[in-house]
Amino acid sequence: MEDKLKIIxxxxxxxxxxxxxxxxxxxxxxxxxxxxxxxxxxxPGVDFIIPNISYLKGKEKNILGLLLTHGHYDHIGAIPYLIxxxxxxxxxxxxLTKGIVVKRQEDFKNGIKLNIxxxxxSDRFKLGPFEIENFPQNHNIPDGVGLVIKTPVGNILxxxxxxxxxxxxxxxxxxxxxxxxxxSQNILxxxxxxxxxxxxxxxxxxxxxxxxxxxxxxxxxxxxIAATFASLLSRIQELIFLAQKYNRKVLIDGWSxxxxxxxxxxxxxxxxxxxxxxxxxxxxxxxxxxLLIICTGSQGxxxxxxxxxxxxDHKYLSIQEGDSIILSSSIVxxxxxxxxxxxxxxxxxxxxxxHSQMMDIHASGHAQHDELKLMMEITKPKFFMPIHGSFYMxxxxxxxxxxxxxxxxxxxxxxxxxxxxxxxxxxLNIAKKKIASNYVMVDGLGIGDxxxxxxxxxxxMAKDGMFVIIVLIDSxxxxxxxxxxxxxxGFVYLRESKKLLFNARQLVINLVEHITQKQxxxxxxxxxxxxxxxxxxxxxxxxxRRPMVLPVVLEV
Amino acid sequence: MEDKLKIIxxxxxxxxxxxxxxxxxxxxxxxxxxxxxxxxxxxPGVDFIIPNISYLKGKEKNILGLLLTHGHYDHIGAIPYLIxxxxxxxxxxxxLTKGIVVKRQEDFKNGIKLNIxxxxxSDRFKLGPFEIENFPQNHNIPDGVGLVIKTPVGNILxxxxxxxxxxxxxxxxxxxxxxxxxxSQNILxxxxxxxxxxxxxxxxxxxxxxxxxxxxxxxxxxxxIAATFASLLSRIQELIFLAQKYNRKVLIDGWSxxxxxxxxxxxxxxxxxxxxxxxxxxxxxxxxxxLLIICTGSQGxxxxxxxxxxxxDHKYLSIQEGDSIILSSSIVxxxxxxxxxxxxxxxxxxxxxxHSQMMDIHASGHAQHDELKLMMEITKPKFFMPIHGSFYMxxxxxxxxxxxxxxxxxxxxxxxxxxxxxxxxxxLNIAKKKIASNYVMVDGLGIGDxxxxxxxxxxxMAKDGMFVIIVLIDSxxxxxxxxxxxxxxGFVYLRESKKLLFNARQLVINLVEHITQKQxxxxxxxxxxxxxxxxxxxxxxxxxRRPMVLPVVLEV
Lengths: 556, 556
Description:
The structure is a homodimer. Chain A is of the alpha/beta class. In chain A, 29% of the residues lie in helices and 24% in strands. Chain A has 14 helices and 26 strands. In chain A, strand 10 and strand 11 form a beta hairpin. Chain A is globular. The N and C termini of chain A lie far apart (65 Å). At the A-B interface, helix 9, helix 11, helix 12, strand 24 and strand 25 of A face helix 9, helix 11, helix 12, strand 24 and strand 25 of B.
């Protein structure tokens, strides 16, 4: 066991998000990233999904560090929920990533003080049997890194999220020479970002995006309102550069974006001239053609800045005829309908809309087919493991690896929780048995208490509502006392269903008294089950709906 | 009033779907289409949305006919719900459209017998003050038509759903000359399909799609499983042609697709050689390389054929290594996640997947920018009204109209329920007041009874669940009898929340007895409201969730 390296992905392999991977040698552990995932439509009420860390229970003292690749929530968002549960190990992060993590921690009541160490983008340090060498990676947030993890069995290159951008904005161009040099140390295993493995060709450079955005600045005579992701600091930088060039002041709107901009400014990761940024109080004095508003809400999220504007529900802004609205983002799967609604509402109020299906005003931060291929060609790994992506994305990434000649048997398509072992003799073993890696759902203050049962109930009530009927049985006579109370929600419109409710009551009274006549003592559970079944059938017959039927039977 | 034409869209203007438009002259009415719309994610449990027909109440005798443009559900799907409520007027439909409408009607228990008249694709007939001339339109179902409605105030051209396809498969190529000739009669108003107004250029011809599909047939050595929309008969025809060319038998799988294929075969609208189609019992005898399965489920719908296959839940089919799966459809907005899941599940089982983001194996049935422009150039209308699309799509269509020189004031961007009046002197008036055109939701047997109240309750329970507490008050002493019963679902995992439930009961007992000590007689509504408020606060404080709190207070 001692001379084997274990790699255990706790998330990120069957989803885009929840990235967290354990590297264990002997009993020493390091972790890369600790991210959240956003819930699907069939998980109503769930705020986030975080990794299951039960494997680390009892191993807290052996955890030497948490390494962060960049400051996006799918890589750092679970820290406030989990870090104190694994013994608060030191966190290693570059300046901006550190700033974002610290700020987020402050937003959590009772959050512990983090033990966080700032590293440079090109840095080297030792953690027990591991030696870490990190290097800059382009993404759509500054200060991202990739990692080489040197272990006694060989060197592992973890790309983090990346794309190769030769002309980024507000970041250094990719230094392929540097990656080549790092890779010349003999890479045993390449773990590489699969998010865009479905996309052919090369990702669009941020410079191109900026050039397209500039066209809009040139033709707009009114205000420009640009919505993008709060964390897309590279895009925000591009917009600010353009505002300065075209003599516009900039208002940042949206809580999370404001936070990110503030952190980045403080750390010198955003370049902004004096007097460019203004506050909400100043906008009235500025003529429309001299104003750029950068805001959140490009996904049509109900509580974000642009959607409030669209709904005429914003504190101090409203859409005006002549506004140019830029949706500088992709549509996150699942948000298509709300983005359609957003566009309808905005265009109804006379705004002109520019979106990324019309022209290239958004680029993803993830490498596409040709870049993924280049990464493999540069690093020439023995083993290859596609990470960050659903199964299908990783299979496509695998096909790219086979194109460059990595043999099929050296490509690892595993699942979350599968333990991958590499021995000193460079042989690979993937354990069939998995450690716990199921979804842990965060809902309000509860972590992990919303599971399948609660979700199934929510889904069922969402579909057909619920129907509670309360029956009081006279313990002496066995007769039903009073008319049974009915509490129903989400099933039928009660005011127009009086006959249905009357018949339901009659059915239940008859049913109960039929049983109590014959049974002494009355088996209340039997009565409940009978009501549930017969009443359920009755309601379905009358409505073709299956509300959750919940009988309460009390003897008084 | 007498010499004015009223046009009243009941649906299709703020959505893609629910198409239905009233044309009224004097008191005589004709209707074009009667479609459904599919519900959004925030309408759990709702099956369909249908048009509100209250405007037609009392006018049943004046309805001279319902004209159908083609057999898709967003144009015909509401007939079984509505036709008998408007006096069962005659329906005018081409052969295939009629076949689909009649079949659907048979599926409804107690559905009336339709009064349906078959028309040719190029036909002319009079209905009171209206004269109808219809003409063939290409779409992705055969037998579609556009209409010219000749009225005493002028001629209206309604495009239906259309694209200009010079090389369709299984349909006649567009006859621009014919449309030109019809349009030469002086078009007062063009009402044109806006579904794809966002798309630049020209739609892809079905011939091109077939050529790309053929590449897959050439390189596949195993089974081919092609999933598409059940109603996409043109695509099904293309696939059948290819199967015949490449010596494959064809199995149609999926209830609705089977129905459609059966109808189309019977009417000669699908060209299939003898012995091409096989039944499920025959597939075992056929080697994989000689089999094509055409099925439903390209959207990852849980109950459709391909998703059952993916979940290993299909009656007689399972995925095999070597299968080629073709997803020959677009992704309907809102289905992105389920399609991702579908691809993951299928590729896990070793299938190779071809989808329309990889190559052109799907074309929309709707005209794009250049076709829309051409339609206007051919028809040269005085007035123009974009239909079939959300507000934003119609505004883009309006911009196209302005490009070809139609003046802004002659373009009608109205809302559902707005009455558009055109006088004999060719002046236009759009009434500000709207007639009822709100969503009518179908859920099971209920039509229209699920409204805002029921939906809001469903959404609320989906998010945080519900919490019913039942308190029995001794009418003599005012004390709480027994421990209050709690019925909670979708809120917390009850087994692990014993302390929370205990504290909730204590809070309620104390609260109730505090009130009953002071009040005689007890105001039960006051007690209920107090419980609702205080218990709600308590639960929120402990969990950050807001379940629907429903107190039941009974005096015994």
